[in-house]
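Still learning. Any example?
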Amino acid sequence: MDLAEICRVMRRRWYVLLPGLLLTAALTAGVYLVVPITYQSQSTVALLNSQKATVAFDGNPFLSTQTSLTGMADSLARNLNSDASIADLKARGVTGVYQAMIADNAQGPLMWLTVTGTDPDSVLESDKILTEYAESRLQQFQTEQSVAPNAMIRMTTIVPPQNPVAQTKTRLEYLIMAGGLGLVTSLVATFYVEARRRPRPVAHPADEELPAAEDTPDEQPQAAAQPAAAQPAGDRPAGAEHPEGPAARPAPRWSKPVEETDSSTTETEAHRFV
C-alpha cells in the first residue's frame, strides 16, 4: 500500500478518522491543562575552613580546603533531606519539592540546594529559606558537639538562589505521548473499518469444476484410434493408421483382395457366355 492508497482510504473513511482526531485533540488539551509547568530555582553554597585553621594562610579560607570539609558537606546534605528537616522546612514556609546534594564534578565542598514547584514566586522564596536553613543546621551540628566558635566550619553562598526556570520537558513528553497514541488509534480504527467494509469477490463453483464425463481435445483422437487399433493388421485397409490420409478415399480396384477379384471375374464371364 502506497501513500496514494493511504490517502484514498483516509478520505473514504473520514467518518471514522475525523472523530478520532477530535478525541486526540481533546486528550492533548486535557494533558496540557492537567500537567502544569514546573519551575526550578537553585543556589550553590560552599563550606569553608574555620578561622583557626586559616591562620597559616593569612586568614584566607579558600586556600585551606581539607578532605574533612567534603565529608561534612555530605553529612549536611543527608540531614537536610531527612524527614525531620522536611517537616521543619514546611513549617517555615517552604513549598514544592527540594533537594540538597553535593555539586556534580565539584573539586571542593560545594553543595546544590534546589527547589521545584509550580509557582515561580514561591519557588524562589523557598530556595532562599532553604539556603538560610542549611547554614543554621551547620552551626547547630557544631554547637551540639561543643566546638569553639573560632574552630567552627563556616558556610558561604557562592551562587545565590536563581530566578526560577520553567521545566517543560516532562509536560512536553506527556503531550507527545497523548497525541501519538490518539493518532495511531485513529488510523488503526480507520483501516480496520476499511478492511471490514471492502467488498470481496464472489467465487462461482460452476466455473471452477469441470464436468467429469466431458473429454478433453487431447483424449478424443486417442478414443477414435482405439477401435482401429483393436482390428487385426491384415483386415485394416491401407492408410487406416492415418485417418487424414488415403483412408478417407475408396481403395483402388487393384488393391482388393485376390478372392474378391476372382469371384467378380468368374461371374462376369458366366454372364458373357450365357
In short: The domain at 38-167 is CATH 3.30.1890.10 (Bacterial polysaccharide co-polymerase-like).
